[in-house]
Amino acid sequence: MKKILLIVIIISFQLLAQNKINVNHKYQELKCSTCHTCEIPTKEKPCLIDCPRDKMITIEHKAEEGPVVLTIDRLKKQTDIYKPVIFTHRLHAEMSDMAGGCKMCHHYNPPGKVIGCKECHEIDRNRIDISKPDLKGAYHQQCMNCHRQWSGKVECLSCHDLNANQKKSEKQKEIDATKKVHKKVEPPKIIKFETPKSSSKFVEFLHEEHFNLFSIECQKCHSNESCNKCHYKFKPVPASQKSTLEKHTKCSNCHDTKSNCTMCHSNNAKNAFNHLERTGFDINKFHSKLTCQRCHVEKGKFIGLNSDCSTCHGIWTKDNFKHSLVGLQLDETHLEFDCTECHQNKKFEKPTCKNCHDDKEFPKDKPGKLVK
Amino acid sequence: MLNQSRRDFLKTSTLITSATLGLNSKSKAASKYVLSEDRMGVLVDTTVCIGCRKCEWACKVAHNLPTEPIDTYDDRSVFKEKRRPNDKALTVVNEYPNDFTDKFPIDVKVQCMHCDKPACLSACIVGAFSKHENGAVFWDSTKCIGCRYCMVACPFQIPAFEFEKALKPDIKKCDFCYKDRTFKGKLPACVEICPVEAITYGRREDLIKAAREKIKMYPNRYVNRIFGEYEVGGTSWLYLASKDFEKLDFPKLGKDPAPGVSEAIQHGIFAYFVPPVALYALLGGIMWINKNKKSKEQEQDK
């Protein structure tokens, strides 16, 4: 009796979960016509558009969410010369991080979970609908597109094992494949560019600062890079052949590259980023522990904040401001005054004593005692 | 006198010529190519082809031609020189450099294009060639007399002759795997083996539609042209490429079928026993003129 009850509970739970997905699906920001051909799709007749779909929707996943290793044996036949490929899915997913992500291979993926090639590509090559390649073609096209570029190799043996080769068990190979990792890419700290100009010849790009200090995601700049950015058989176009506009595209996403050349181009080495030097606002006093995003809320943009304290902190009064935080505990007399009695600018800099005292001056005389 | 007879002679010969020409236009009007709407074809996407040359191997096996083992086809040094299909290899893959240096090379498979209006078929004086309903241009060894007109006529220079054979040499060319495969609804051997499906077998109409869709979706990947859609009146094999076809050694061809005028004249002349009739008419004409001449001379003598 208990068992039955448990099963009923599980089933109802799953049904509820399914319903939940459907509700979400309905409210997704999608037009029905993106996926369905008819106006009112039903469960019985969903009238789904065949893939590939013109408008593609992809849901980004992390590499860890996908399977580690896949054995691609959908097309396995007894007569095959080659063994099925043991595909290091996670390794490839990680590598695609800076390229196009999941959608590099899982193109035209409908919303929801990521689907495999076999869901859309037919197994039989002799087919009616030839608008998309068959499964064998689809697999190979995906692989070869990159593999050809970085290794220049098209031999079957670069991915497949010979069927006659029985040295290692399949299980062992799968285990071996899970251990395969891409050599860790050490991001350079500084990248130096030499330009053909006579003056301001060098551009020292503070690479590390861009992702460590400014927390710019790698993909923001490295978004369309396949393996052959580093591994290539056929040499890439040298920078000298690129147009000025092309060379500056990555920088001009954030920087003004048209009128302000000296920002990046100079004859000397660049100093590390200094907020006071660059903007005139010293963050070392009170703001040094904050991340950039704490003040520069808009992602990836670091320009033009008003340096008045009230921009971020609101209006300070004698009641809501704990003066000891700045390292000076006000004495009882001074605690009674409004902030503006002493601090006459909006930045609450050096106070004036002249309003009340003729013979006193800050910092020689202090309106309280110093605290740590 | 002499002038008179010459004019007569010219008159007769003009008559004969115009008669022949008249017949020509007649034979041109009655087109004998009945092309099936469902005829098949193959779309070659040269941007997908990886140059593994498995198609070359499969073709040789399917046609009982001697071949090296399959793993020797990995040798890419063959691409150093451009090859042509011959009597020992009915299809070959050639490699061309890509315009963008960071891209892989372009591989192009070459074989008989299986024209909708085949020049070889028109040139063949014994009817050894036939265009089948499924699009195949097929050569029949039992009819061939070895004149090699087909080799001259082909705009793609495909038919090859077994020069090395002293006895009963054959014309060799891609036969669309007609007898053993496509006639039975199976795939051609090369299409079946291609690992990347750079060559797609299907209804010619569907292939053109698919090719157009590809060009529309990836305008940077392809030049806006399907080679074989209109060339020499259309071919069963169609090509897509990322580079001008002429730079990939495709011949520069017009839209008119290659047989064109020559075929009309040839077939016109050979039809309705024109040559013997014309010959006898000519001889008769000369006789008649001479006879007239003689009788006039006799009259004058009298």
UniProtKB/TrEMBL annotation, chain A:
UniProt xrefs under Pfam families: Cytochrom_c3_2, Cytochrom_CIII
Parts forming coiled coils: none
Superkingdom of the organism of origin: Bacteria
Free-text cofactor note: Binds 4 heme c groups covalently per monomer.
Record carries keyword Iron: yes
Residue ranges of the TM segments: none
Binding site for heme c 1: 89, 92, 102, 105-107, 120-121, 143, 146-147, 156, 159-160
Cellular localization per UniProt: Cell envelope
One CC-aspect GO term: cell envelope
Ranges for domain Tetrahaem cytochrome: 288-358
Required co-factors: heme c
UniProt keyword annotation of Zinc present: no
Gene3D superfamilies: Cytochrome C3, Flavocytochrome C3, Chain A
GO molecular function terms attached to this record: electron transfer activity; heme binding; metal ion binding
Residue span, Class III cytochrome C domain: 78-160
Keyword line: Electron transport, Heme, Iron, Metal-binding, Transport
Entry-linked InterPro entries: Cyt_c_III (IPR002322), Cyt_c_III_dom (IPR020942), Multihaem_cyt_sf (IPR036280), Tetrahaem_cytochrome (IPR012286)
Residue sites binding heme c 3 per the record: 117
Main location: other
Protein name per the record: Cytochrome c3 family protein
Species the sequence originates in: Stygiobacter electus
Automatic annotation (TrEMBL), chain B:
Keywords, in A-Z order: 4Fe-4S, Iron, Iron-sulfur, Membrane, Metal-binding, Repeat, Transmembrane, Transmembrane helix
InterPro entries for this protein: 4Fe4S_Fe-S-bd (IPR017896), 4Fe4S_Fe_S_CS (IPR017900), FDH_Electron_Transfer_Unit (IPR051555), TAT_signal (IPR006311)
Keyword Metal-binding among UniProt keywords: yes
Localization in the cell: Cell envelope
Transmembrane intervals: 269-289
CDD domains named in the record: HybA_like
GO MF annotations in UniProt: 4 iron, 4 sulfur cluster binding; metal ion binding
Keyword Transferase on entry: no
Descriptive protein name: 4Fe-4S dicluster domain-containing protein
